[in-house]
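Re: weekly structure request thread

Next one in the queue (208 aa):
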Amino acid sequence: MKTVILYFAFLFLSCNSFASGMKGIYTIDTAGSGAKNFTSFADACQQLRDSGVAGAVVFNVADGCYTDYLELDSTVKGTSATKTITFQSQSLDSNKVVLSGPYNIIYLGGASHVTIRLMTLNCANIWGAVDIDDGASYNTIERCIIRFSGVGIDLRSYSNKNTKFNTIRNNRISGLGTTGGGIEIVSSINSYVSDLTISNNVIDSCNN
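Done, posted below.
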């Protein structure tokens, strides 16, 4: 009887391990397992939307090629200057984690305090490889290799939501035989992109 009770107690705790919000170090590994591993970026993002954050969160991504996407929006609750979300190559080598997809590889629509670093992002469609909009603020894209056909990084504001205090630094942004732009900034009549830091990026094979 005690064994049965302990087993169900373990299951209860496992199922509720994110109930108070995510914090700490997690992994993204298609071959991994355990309560702190996710087998896809999409699953990790869904857990963030479901649970919010209670402290700084780091996702270390195992070496490999992923056909996936990373999408976070304003429904992720609890982020702040000290409760940040980071996705990065576990080996700290941007060449060893390759994230590919037909549309936006990274979409931060209203999300805040998110850092994407040390990964290769491949987008072969007309969409922006990285899309930051809808009031997304205090986000950082750094030390990534970004390959695109449409736009490398697209920053936009609309619906009276200002997109501000974002940082784009130390990236290599390359067009794939494209006439698009490396970094595109679009403000609307009632909202704007502001307080943007762009530094030490290499942009080639595109219009800007």
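The helical segments are 2-15, 41-51. Residues 63 and 162 are 35 Å apart (CA to CA).
Next request, please.
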